[in-house]
Design a protein that fits this description.
The protein has 226 residues and is of the alpha/beta class. Helix content is 22%, strand content 28%. The chain has helices at residues 36-51, 70-87, 164-170, 190-198; strands spanning 2-7, 12-19, 22-30, 60-64, 91-94, 111-117, 122-129, 135-143, 157-160, 176-179. The strands form two sheets. A five-stranded mixed sheet has the order 3-2-1-4-5, sandwiched between helices. The relative contact order is 0.19.
Length: 226
């Protein structure tokens, strides 16, 4: 089964194509400027070219559904829906946090804790078993302070994601490792996507919304003085 993967929830704009579990091509770039709007469809074209496939040969779309950047998630969801409607193929959605833990499974960590940077000292996070990848604590928004995650003080854990840097500054956890250079990636959506396909866990394309986790908080412009 030829599957196109889109992951736009972070600074990493990421597109991949697989034939079942075999990765055929990966195109991704991490940018501080969030280039999803200008790069996503170019990356899709490059990935199709690299995989030597045409768009009409794609049989399913998998999307990293968030949490993460509100604008990035909107762009990814709109593109995924467009492909699904146009090609009449199913949509699979995977929690973006799950794509961050796969490189660290089986590395002697009791728990893997992804941290996506949100506002100020807030992060989007969940807790996963370090061997099986099983979700232990579901996705939530959490404020970081010196008391956060203290229940894991005696465990070997790793914090991954762009929220790990500010976590390292405040968390007092002597057995913890921190890796801030990890972003959600489409290449790590493959395993979970295939599991969902086998279970026929498809999204309703018409009603699907990304996993924003929190309402969008825009900045109001001040009214100009008359």
């Amino acid at each position: 089964m030829k599957i196109l993967y889109l992951e736009t929830s972070s600074k990493n704009c990421s597109v991949a194509i697989s034939d079942n579990e075999k990765l055929l091509c990966l195109c991704e770039e991490t940018s501080e400027n969030y280039k999803q709007s200008e790069s996503l469809h170019t990356f899709v074209e490059w990935a199709l070219e690299g995989a030597e496939l045409s768009l009409k040969e794609i049989q399913a779309i998998s999307l990293g559904k968030g949490p993460g950047s509100y604008t990035g998630l909107r762009i990814g969801a709109a593109s995924a829906k467009g492909f699904c409607y146009g090609l009449k193929i199913p949509l699979i959605a995977v929690n973006s946090l799950e794509s961050m833990i796969e490189p660290f499974l089986g590395q002697n960590y009791d728990y893997i804790i992804p941290l996506i940077d949100a506002r100020r000292m807030e992060v989007y996070t969940a807790i996963y078993d370090g061997n099986t990848g099983e979700e232990k604590i579901e996705t939530e928004a959490k404020i970081l302070d010196y008391t956060t995650f203290q229940e894991y003080r005696d465990k070997k854990i790793i914090f991954v994601g762009d929220g790990a840097k500010k976590a390292q500054e405040v968390l007092q956890l002597p057995n913890a490792d921190f890796n801030e250079n990890i972003f959600p990636s489409s290449k790590y959506l493959i395993k979970k996507t295939l599991e969902k396909i086998n279970k026929k866990e498809f999204e309703d394309v018409a009603y699907f919304e990304p996993f924003y986790l929190k309402d969008f908080q825009g900045v109001k412009k001040k009214k100009s003085e008359e």
